[in-house]
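Q: I have 53 residues here and want to know how they pack in 3D. Can you give me a structure?
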Amino acid sequence: MRSGTMQHGFFFGDDLFGATDKQWGWIMALGILFVVLGTVGLGAVFMLTLASI
């Protein structure tokens, strides 16, 4: 039997999250990119609001 916990009929363990061990850098980079792009987008909305006044 595999180690892990059963919740709502799904197996949560190494089989599900083991693949992210190799690709955590890409996930971190995408997260940082999305935060930067979101900040730029909110800043653009704010600057366009100021420009239209």
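Q: Anything worth noting?
A: The helical segments are 14-17, 24-52. The chain has a mean pLDDT of 79.
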